[in-house]
Design a protein that fits this description.
- By secondary structure, this protein is of the alpha+beta class.
- It has 2 domains: about 300 residues, 3-Layer(aba) Sandwich (Aminopeptidase), CATH 3.40.630; about 100 residues, Alpha-Beta Plaits, CATH 3.30.70.360.
- About 30% of the residues lie in helices and about 25% in strands.
- It is built from 10 helices and 18 strands.
- It has an 8-stranded mixed beta sheet, sandwiched between helices. A 4-stranded antiparallel beta sheet has the order 4-7-18-17.
- A hairpin with a 5-residue loop joins β1 and β2.
- The termini are close together.
- The chain binds zinc ion.
- Zinc ion binds next to α4.
Length: about 425
């Protein structure tokens, strides 16, 4: 079956796909899966198993036999390919179970706004979606928009991605005549608290290529994120009885304040956007004897991270010079690296995503993530992992919404990726 024929088959079954993905989505969002950054366990909240078990059952129901649920709440499933020959390596699709602790995810009651006619969506009280604040709404006149009931988040991040991957697999299993790549599905807990891969090991999958369906608006495609470093700055003072302190006290509180005041304000998160990176002082814990400052460094270019680490060392030396007897140590810790290099090393991973999105009838919207993703950690393990839209808007808030056609388009994109990777080279096939 050619790409054009697959697109036609998807068009014919659009109504059934919309019903299937909406159904799954509405089921998943009603399961409480908020993660908890203060919990040390994996997963951070056992309730994430509730959704994992539902997903395992639904995979079995559609005929996927190779499904595993690990003690750490990872679901790993394998779907054999149907490409004739030559054999092609597997492609991985990923999504996460948890929702953000930034808004309640308990007792989510999804509301369906069918046949949206433009204008405001009054969810409840003062929770209103206006077209001014949500210009994308205008693309969905006559369509169904889904919101929460206004006192919780919706959970499209990332239950839309989860529902879309399952709907894509269902479609592919119903159409074995479509040549497809072997699929490896990985569903993870705790993405929102930055621990989505803590219980993951490289040997769980064989694929060298993966896509997270965890992006926002329709068409979004991200192949780049920040390099992230956390730098600990440790100030050590000299404590003396305050009555005899003249010329002898070295106050670590004052040293820490001085250090932070010397960070360049024009390279702060509040002063930068687009491709500029920054220093962000997150926290100071201090008494007169010692102080600890946490500084985040973010930049798309690694050399800029190195430059900022050197600058922090220079500031440390300057503070030491102003506080004789005091000590300032700078300790950088890597958090994550830009996915760009790993993605560039795997030819075709971005190009096939662009093609698959175009196949669905829209232009890809390429962005750089001013943050990190689980994809970045997979990239470090050698799996090239761009992020693709799941369709939701206003993530982590009570104003979160998703339109059904955006979810359908994400299902189509996943199906077309499976079709496109069934071919050994990425030259445009028709
Ligand atoms: Zn997410």
């Amino acid at each position: 079956m050619t790409i054009t024929e697959v697109v036609a088959a998807l068009r014919r079954e659009r109504t059934a796909i919309a019903a299937d993905v909406t159904d799954r989505f509405l089921r998943y969002v009603q399961i409480h899966t908020t993660s908890d950054k203060d919990s040390p366990s994996i997963p951070s909240t056992p309730r994430q198993f509730d959704l994992a078990k539902v997903v395992v059952q639904e995979l079995h129901d559609m005929g996927v036999t190779d499904v595993e649920l690990t003690d750490s709440c990872y679901v790993i499933a394998r779907v054999p390919g149907t490409a004739a020959d030559p054999p092609v390596p597997a492609m991985c699709l990923m999504a996460h179970f948890d929702t953000s602790p930034e808004a309640s995810g308990e007792r989510v009651k999804p509301l369906l706004w069918e046949n949206y006619q433009g204008g405001d969506i009054r969810i409840s009280g003062d929770v209103v979606l206006t077209p001014e604040e949500n210009p994308l709404l205008q693309n969905y006149r006559g369509e169904t928009v889904i919101t929460s009931s206004g006192d919780t988040l919706l959970g499209a991040d990332d239950k839309a991605g989860l529902a879309e991957i399952l709907s894509a697999v269902r479609f592919l299993l119903q159409h074995p005549e479509i040549p497809r790549v072997p699929l490896e599905l990985v569903f993870t807990p705790d993405e929102e608290i930055g621990r989505g891969l803590d219980g993951f090991s490289r040997d769980m999958i064989s694929a060298n290529v993966a896509y997270t369906l965890d992006g926002g608006e329709e068409g979004e495609l991200e192949g780049e994120c920040y390099n992230g470093y956390m730098v600990e700055v440790l100030c050590t003072g000299e404590v003396i009885h305050l009555g005899y302190a003249r010329g002898r006290l070295v106050n670590a509180v004052t040293m820490a304040a001085q250090f932070v005041s010397m960070l360049p304000r024009n390279e702060s998160p509040e002063a930068t956007d687009e491709r500029y990176g920054y220093y962000a002082p997150l926290e100071i814990k201090a008494d007169m004897g010692s102080a600890r400052i946490e500084v985040y460094l973010r930049d798309f270019e690694f050399v800029e991270i190195e430059r900022r680490i050197e600058a922090l060392r220079a500031i440390a030396a300057a503070v030491e010079a102003q506080f004789p007897g005091g000590r300032v140590a700078v300790q950088p810790h890597k958090q994550y690296l830009n996915m760009r290099e790993a993605i560039a090393a795997e030819p075709g991973v971005m190009e096939r995503a662009r093609q698959a999105i175009r196949d669905t009838g829209i232009e890809p919207v390429e962005r750089s993530i001013r943050g990190g993703t689980d994809g970045a950690k997979l990239c470090e393990l050698g799996v090239a992992t761009p992020n693709i839209f799941a369709g939701g808007v206003n993530f982590h808030s009570v104003r979160e919404w998703v339109a059904v056609p955006a979810m359908v388009r994400a299902v189509e994109t996943a199906v077309l990726l499976a079709r496109r990777w069934a071919e050994a080279d990425s030259s445009p096939a028709s």
